[in-house]
TrEMBL record:
Organism (species): Pelagerythrobacter marensis
Name of the protein: MotA/TolQ/ExbB proton channel family protein
Presence of the UniProt keyword Ribonucleoprotein in the record: no
Transmembrane regions: 6-25, 125-147, 153-179
Keywords: Cell membrane, Membrane, Protein transport, Transmembrane, Transmembrane helix, Transport
Domain of life: Bacteria
The UniProt record lists the keyword Kinase: no
Topology versus the membrane: Multi-pass membrane protein
Length: 221
């Protein structure tokens, strides 16, 4: 079997281009753009929890040595932890830490779910566009002459193949890769937040207990 016979630029343009156009029409530009951003981030290095934890340790040491009132926010090169440091210093509260993390976590989860859904739609549409290419090729039978019949049949088969390959070996796996990466990153961030909250809680002095009015009166007498 000659593998070069499977290379048909026209069929690929019909299936791939048609799938992209149909996905854009079905999902809208905003969600499609979210998926493209997620795809562009896949080759980048995953979230480095060890590096961020080391930098967070420096922030915690500063709080322990100078106190929460004199500590300054640090920049970690990570949008979430930059905001967490700022919220912690500004509000001097563990609750502010968790609230800020929840906001970022919700935004990341929504983006990952949107990207996964868009790629899932593309995986669903690719075989349909493969069938469209097949019908277009078969429709050329009426105008085909001589050896062109074989070419039309070959194009019909190849477009179906392209649709299945794009669905099961491109769009589907990419959707799975984005979902797995999002889950792994979220798990690492949750562990870091739990460690940071427990560490900072020990460094922040607790508020004094409320004083009893009778006790104050007796002390004044």
């Amino acid at each position: 079997m000659n593998v070069l016979q499977l290379l048909d630029p026209v069929s690929l343009a019909i299936v791939f281009g048609g799938t992209l156009a149909a996905t854009l029409l079905r999902c809208g530009w905003r969600d499609t753009r979210t998926a493209l951003i997620a795809l562009a981030q896949l080759p980048n290095r995953p979230f480095d929890s060890a590096r961020v934890r080391a930098e967070l340790a420096a922030q915690v040491r500063e709080i322990e040595e100078d106190g929460i009132l004199r500590a300054e926010p640090h920049s970690f090169g990570d949008g979430e932890f930059d905001d967490l440091s700022d919220a912690l210093i500004r509000h001097r509260s563990i609750k502010a830490l968790h609230d800020e993390h929840a906001r970022h976590s919700s935004r990341r989860r929504t983006a990952a779910e949107t990207a996964t859904r868009v790629l899932g739609e593309a995986a669903e549409l690719a075989p349909v566009l493969g069938l469209v290419g097949t019908l277009v090729a078969l429709g050329g039978f009426s105008a085909a002459a001589g050896g062109d019949y074989a070419r039309s049949i070959g194009t019909a088969v190849v477009t179906t193949l392209y649709g299945l390959v794009l669905a099961n070996f491109v769009f589907g796996p990419l959707a799975g890769a984005i979902a797995r990466r999002a889950r792994a990153e979220e798990s690492e961030r949750e562990a870091l937040i739990a460690w940071l909250a427990a560490t900072v809680e020990r460094a922040i002095p607790s508020a004094p207990p409320p004083r009893d009015a009778d006790t104050d009166a007796k002390a004044a007498a």
